[in-house]
Amino acid sequence: MTSARVSQRIGSIAESATLAVDAKAKALKAAGRPVIGFGAGEPDFPTPQYIVEAAIEAARQPRFHRYSPAGGLPELKAAIAAKTQRDSGYEAEASQVLVTNGGKQAVYNTFATLLDPGDEVLLPTPYWTTYPEAIRLAGGAPVEVFAGPEQDYLATVDQLEAALTPRTKVLLFVSPSNPTGAVYSPEQTREIGQWAASKGLWVVTDEIYEHLTYDGVPFTSIATATPELGDRVVILNGVAKTYAMTGWRVGWMIGPADVIKAATNLQSHATSNVANISQMAALAAVSGPLDAVEEMKVAFDRRRQTIVKMLSEIGGVNCPTPKGAFYVYPDVRGVLGREIAGVRPATSAELAALILDKVEVAIVPGEAFGPSGFVRLSYALGDDDLAEGVGRIQELLGTAK
After folding, report:
1. Distances, alpha carbon 84 to alpha carbons 36, 64, 161, 246, in Å
2. Could you tell me the CA-to-CA distances from 62 to 57, 58, 75, 77, 286 in Å, in that order?
3. pLDDT for the residue numbered 267
4. How far apart, in whole angstroms, are the C-alpha atoms of residue 284 and residue 250?
5. Per-residue pLDDT for 21 more than 80?
6. What class has domain 8-46+292-397?
7. What gap in Å lies between CA 193 and CA 173, rounded to an integer?
């Protein structure tokens, strides 16, 4: 009997769809094709210069050429706790912070630390593509709770209640949302948090887009809005989106001391410390002003309005206006089944493939985030590329309503 070369656990993981689309777009571009990519959630701005200078200075110091504590540099952990108090109103000690290799490691560490085999996680859908894979890797079972465009992609307490079982242990709460850009109001956030507390659930909240909201919509941390949760909440965050630092790979988790200690033990065997140079860059970021993100927000807001207007001009496309992050998540079910360039795409995956093939524009199909029938486009790219890319989609699909 021949055993499989790859373990069932790892073999069952789906590739990151957003990174796959981005890689394909970049490969085509490198081959000389005029591809425009809307795939990756990556600001097109450089990391602010004062952050870069902090990294350069750190690289000159021999102490940062050595191993450092697996859980993070003490000064960075203290600064993250202070930044969380400033931005979320949530009080935490440095001992409650674990610095991770990007936000993804924080996601995995959290689920690996909280879940036992068979534990269920309520997963509001559409979801970021990594969440269900991290949950399954940790032995848990994601339970999708779908909220469509007719409810602005916002799950309700009634929907969560209907999905609750005796095996439910965690609610994942994400606002602002990737992939939809949806933002829960303070009232909705509080209601969901109080419901979770009443059921004795853990809440894992991803706050990485906390500074990217529009139209006067506030960011509300469920950890702060619902003190009833007590110590059954874990906050995930990082510097990638706020400070245009996707490649620096610094994220963190904040939670009860026992959970953080256990997650730190895990990380000590998995990766040990985050690169010290990146940690010192992150220290400059979280300790510094928010001027950079405010400048980016002006551009993102302008692009948000442009992309919603242009996509809404396409017949069969319903594009809700996002209130946060830098994504739109149009409903394209009205396009599916229509003949386009001699082809009748039946799914959003087929539609995305057709758009890439015919007009060389890369978007991510809804299958990466939940049900088919939707697509995600990031508007964190230059204004000219955005207009050109959506213009090509308009030409292919038609703009007559």
Report:
1. 36, 25, 30, 20
2. 11, 8, 17, 21, 23
3. 98
4. 12
5. no
6. alpha beta
7. 9
Assess whether the previous peptide bond of 176 is cis (omega < 30° from 0).
Answer: yes
Q: Indicate the pTM of the whole model.
A: 0.95
pLDDT tens digits, 80-136: 999 999 999 999 999 999 999 999 999 999 999 999 999 999 999 999 999 999 999
Sort strands 251-254 and 120-125 into parallel, antiparallel or unpaired.
Answer: unpaired
Backbone angles phi, psi at 324, to 5 degrees: -160, 180
- Measuring CA to CA, which residue among 324, 43, 386, 298 is closest to residue 180? 324
Residue 88 · residue 261 · CB < 8 Å: no
pLDDT digits (tens, 9 = 90+) for 184-201: 999 999 999 999 999 999
What residues are paired with 233 via a beta bridge? 203
For 396, other C-beta atoms within 10 Å of its C-beta total 16
pLDDT at 20: 75
pLDDT average, residue stretch 15-21 = 74
How would you class 5 by CB atoms within 10 Å of its CB: exposed for 0-12, middle for 13-18, buried for 19 or more?
Answer: exposed
Q: What is the CATH number of domain 49-287?
A: 3.40.640.10
Whether 8-46+292-397 shares its CATH topology with 49-287 is answered: no
CA distance 156 to 146: 10
Integer CA distances (angstroms), 225 to 45, 186, 202, 228, 346, in order: 32, 7, 15, 9, 42
**Cα separation of 76 and 100, whole Å?**
12
Take residue 101 and report the two structure tokens written for it: 């290799």
List the one residue out of 361, 360, 362, 332 whose CA is nearest residue 348. Answer: 332
> What does the alpha-carbon distance between residue 13 and residue 5 come to, in Å, rounded to a whole number?
15
Q: Tell me: the pLDDT tens digits for 25-56?
A: 888 888 888 899 998 788 999 999 999 999 99
Q: Is the pLDDT of residue 1 over 70?
A: no
Domain boundaries, the chain: 8-46+292-397, 49-287
Nearest to 48 by CA among 325, 300, 288: 288
